[in-house]
Each structure stands twice: as structure tokens, then as C-alpha cells.
Amino acid sequence: MNYLSSVTTPFIRDAKITVESRWLTGIEFCWGYEDRPLFQILRSLEIQDAVKWTDRFSELEALACETAFCRAIENAHSIHVSKKVQMIREFLLTFQRMQWGFQLLTNTFGCLGDKAMYESSVLLAESLRDWLEVTTGHRVLPQFLKVGGIRREFSLGELVKLGAFFSEFFPRAEQLLTDIEKDVILWERLSGLLRISCETCNQIFVMGPFVCQFGQTSDALHRIHSVIAMIRSSFKELLALHKALTLESRVESAELHSVDWPKSTVRGGAFGSSGWIEIEVSADVVRISSPSTRMRNQLEELVKGIIVNDLSLALVTLGFSLQEAELVNSKNQDIGDTLSKEYQSVGNQR
What we know:
Strand order of the largest sheet: 7-8-9
CATH class: Mainly Alpha
CATH superfamily: Cytochrome-c3 Hydrogenase, chain B
Number of strands: 9
Mean pLDDT: 84
Order of helices and strands: EEHHHHEEHHEHEHEEEHHHHH
Strand content: 5-15%
Low-confidence stretches: 1-7, 333-350
CATH topology: Cytochrome-c3 Hydrogenase, chain B
Helix content: 40-55%
Number of helices: 13
Number of domains: 1
Largest sheet: 3 strands, antiparallel
Radius of gyration: 21 Å
Distance between the termini: 54 Å
């Protein structure tokens, strides 16, 4: 397998900005990649060991990457995956989608300077990361799946504790979501920000929370509404899956001591946090197609024409990290805080 830096999801490393008055008239993003030495020797790894590192393709959607890679290999070799393994995979995917949703809300309130909302969403996002570590052993990079199965089963004790956690977590989360929905100032701030056509949005975020109906457009307000709806949907899915897992018998994973790399091109996909993730695997290459990779060539045109002080907020509502947004924000001395002083004053009083 040849090493390609392009297998990893791109991130914003730098930006050159052109401003006329307060409007963004031009921007050129410089994209970076997570060049990890391990990828240089991927061809020497057994498939089951390679699975552990596919979550580095897109760290905020690690489980979707592991799932997509496993499905590609399972499809290539016609490997049967048991019902409970599929349920556990779906449980973890849904869990990570919800974690991503609260992280996006955290980034949004960080940009807005709303300390109270920011702290509330941070606490919820952190508690989800803690539980991801309990269930998989890792907070960010789970390395939990394997071709044909999972690396270990949830114990009955873990399932009982997860049930207790959900009983405490969901009411707190619902209270935050309700508070957000009542925030008239927030809705005014987000309304009309960075409108994206239905066709473009659905092409980038395939099956993700940001997709919109034909004839509609997606602005920042629509995207935050969509994240809230996705989180609430995840509540229901997790409760249903948790109940089903407690009733299912022991996991039966396929005993695969050695799996060959496919000689022809195979693909596997999974519903990630922000949209559909697909991984292509062959004897020569491993590539990922994700919302970030699909957005890369269109982002400069998408953000052109917005008020320059809105750039950071626009980026985080698309799923970019707060660090990326702040980096772009710092590249032009004319770019001040994303939030107006009036809104920031209100946010600090909460």
C-alpha cells in the first residue's frame, strides 16, 4: 500500500483574506493534513491492526471511519457480521454523533462569547467523552472495532451504568437545548448567515444533519436547528439500542486470524457525525471521502461575500473546530471578534 497524505481529512492551516470595507471579497485557504508516520508502513500491517489506525482519518468521526473501513473489508471477503455486533457499532456511531453535536454547539457559543451557554455545552460534551473512554478505552481514538466484529463486548455492569448515565444526562441536555431554542438573540444572529443552496449542501453533507429539502437553503440558523434535532433523535436511538443490547445474547465475532488486503477496489461507508463517510480500499490506496474532503474545493466560494467579522461563526456552524476558526480570524487585522459588542454584553450577563 502506497502512502498518500491525502488519505486524511484536511484541516485549515492558514488563510489569505481580502477585505473590502467590511465584506469578504476573497479568501484562499491553505489546507493541512495529519501526516502520521504509521501510514508510511500501512502496507506492512495486518488488516486487523490497520483498523486501529483508520480512526485517524477523521478524528472527530473516528468510529465512522473504523466502521466504514471494516465494512469495506467485510464486503470484499463476504464476512458475516452478527446482529449484536451491528447493534454495538450503531450504538457507538450514534453516541459519537451526539458528542459531535454538543462539540459544535460548544464551538458556536465560544465564537459568540456566550460564557454561560459555552460552559453548559462544554460540560455535556466532556461527560460524553468520559463515557466514550469508559466504553471503548479511549476518549478520542476508540480503536474498538475489528473486521468481522468488535475487540471486546460491553459488560452487563457497563450497560447498567450507561443506563444510569442516560437517566441523568438526557434531562440536563434537554434543558440546554430548550434554552437555546428560546434564545431570540441567538436566532437573530444566525439567521441568514452563510446561506448554502440545497444542491450544494446535500452534495457535501450526504445524509448528514445539515441536508435540506429541495428548494430550501441552509443558513447558520438551519444548521444549529438541525444539530439540535439530530441530538434529540440520538437520545431516542441510544435508549432503544441500549434496551436491545441488554436483551441480546453474547456477541459472536468472526474468528479471523488473517485477512488479506483486497486486490481490487472495495468501498465501505458509515453515517458519520456531519454526513456520509466512505473509505475506498485497494492494494494500492486507502482514501476517505467525508464532508470535509467534499467541502474543501467549494469552501472559498461559499464564504465569499459574507461580513468578515462573521467568518469564524460561519466556519464553526459548518463543523470546523474553534481553533481553525480562530486561526482564520487572526489572519486579518481588520477581523475583530465574531460577535457584536451588544450581543457579547448580553451573553456575559447570563
